[in-house]
Specification:
This protein has about 400 residues and is mostly beta strands. It has one helix spanning about 180-185; strands spanning about 10-15, 30-35, 50-55, 55-60, 65-70, 85-90, 100-105, 110-115, 120-125, 140-145, 150-155, 160-165, 170-175, 195-200, 210-215, 220-225, 230-235, 245-255, 265-270, 275-280, 285, 315, 325, 330-335, 340-345, 360-365, 370-375, 380-390.
């Protein structure tokens, strides 16, 4: 995330990849295998500071704390007060007139953190992911998560669960998306409350650390501490937790030796893989590899071969990355002023003009003349705010 908003002069906003719900904001529903400039709704002119995507929707956070939203809306995940699909970006004020500071998108729900430290949610609540309890099925209006009385400073949305960090140093979790896997793995022992909660529940086992941020996969959770330690819990089906157990009910710290011995400064999560950057600027990846999402040639591809052990390994070409974004199984990175992509590419989300998976980070040809400033991913689509420079970049 950028530290502050970006002025609009000379900026262009691009989107590409899956578009069956209009999540690219280009007024149609056809996939794009190369970046297309988005002009309707003027996203580049809104001083953007955060780009987020869900299963089929996009949410852009402006410097004024407002939202630009488009895409799938069948559960009200756009927070517009209705459930009609939107194929161009629409401006949405913050809930209750408050400015929004952070946003996170799950599969079919959205979390909004305001400048008052208050957390709101909208969209599906089929798995308790809105954090407002039963029996609400969904909401097209952002609802305040009132049971979370502490000031929130960070948030993350998984497939059907959510996480929040509070200013007092606590981590809360809600949503029942992990409950079924937990029940199978832990039987006959009971499932811990934080894995099966309809309202925010304190995550135990982190009281001795200072949480700095959280991230979420489809069925796993991540906490990065102020000291640079990475804690993981949840499903370990693809060895994404760096242990041999099938499921971790409580947070467990990753051995720093696996990340080159230094503290981590950032961690990003796809559905089943993770990417971390250390204080030396080195970037490591681990977890599921069969779409090339780890960015390491030689890992198993779509041939059905067995998965590698869950051991983080450094990704060539990503040293010094200033920002990374993970979709479900694909990634974007800003390195040396260039925008790179790799991983799953069935809908063209890697932006290289093909639908062939990409096994290692590669520059996006259509954006070779653009300077990337902000990046974001949905499950199967990509977004970037770029500045004009050099050769002209691709247009719609």
């Amino acid at each position: 995330m950028a530290a502050g908003s970006l002025a609009s002069e000379g900026l262009r906003f691009f989107a590409w990849g899956a578009n069956s719900h209009g999540q690219l904001g280009q007024g149609h529903r056809q996939d794009r295998v190369e970046p297309g400039q988005v002009e309707e709704g003027d996203p580049a002119g809104r001083a953007l500071r955060r780009l987020a995507g869900g299963g089929g929707h996009s949410v852009l956070l402006t410097g004024a704390g407002q939202l630009l939203v488009c895409g799938q809306n069948h559960r009200g995940q756009l927070g517009l007060g209705h459930t009609r699909e939107v194929t161009t970006f629409h401006l949405c004020p913050g809930p209750g007139g408050q400015a929004v500071e952070q946003v996170a998108c799950g599969w079919d729900f959205t979390l909004l953190l305001t400048d008052r430290g208050t957390l709101y949610s909208c969209g599906s609540n089929a798995f308790g992911q809105l954090g407002v309890g039963r029996p609400l099925a969904d909401s097209a209006e952002p609802l305040q998560i009132q049971s979370l009385s502490e000031r929130v400073v960070g948030l993350a949305a998984g497939l059907r669960h959510a996480l929040a960090v509070t200013g007092s140093g606590h981590v809360f979790q809600w949503g029942t998306g992990l409950a079924a896997q937990a029940k199978r793995a832990l039987c006959p022992n009971p499932v811990p409350a934080h894995l099966n909660a309809w309202e925010p529940c304190l995550v135990p086992g982190l009281d001795h650390v200072a949480p700095r941020g959280v991230a979420a996969g489809a069925y796993h959770c991540v906490c990065l501490t102020a000291g640079g330690d990475v804690f993981l819990w949840g499903s370990n089906k693809h060895k994404q937790l760096c242990v041999s157990l099938p499921f971790l009910p409580l947070p467990r710290c990753v051995d720093r030796a696996l990340l080159g011995g230094g503290p981590a400064t950032a961690v990003w999560s796809g559905w089943t893989h993770l990417v971390a950057r250390t204080d030396s600027g080195r970037v490591f990846s681990w977890g599921r590899a069969d779409y090339g999402q780890l960015g390491r040639p030689g890992d198993p591809s779509e041939t059905g071969r067995s998965q590698p052990a869950g051991v983080p390994a450094e990704v060539d070409g990503l040293a010094g990355a200033t920002e990374i974004a993970c979709g479900s199984e694909h990634n974007l990175a800003i390195v040396g002023g260039r925008l790179l992509s790799w991983g799953w590419n069935e809908h063209g989300m890697c932006g290289n003009g093909t639908e062939v998976n990409v096994s290692q980070p590669q520059p996006i040809p259509a954006l070779r003349g653009a300077g990337p400033l902000l990046i974001g991913c949905g499950a199967g689509h990509s977004m970037a705010l770029c500045e004009r420079r050099g050769a002209p970049a691709g247009r719609p």
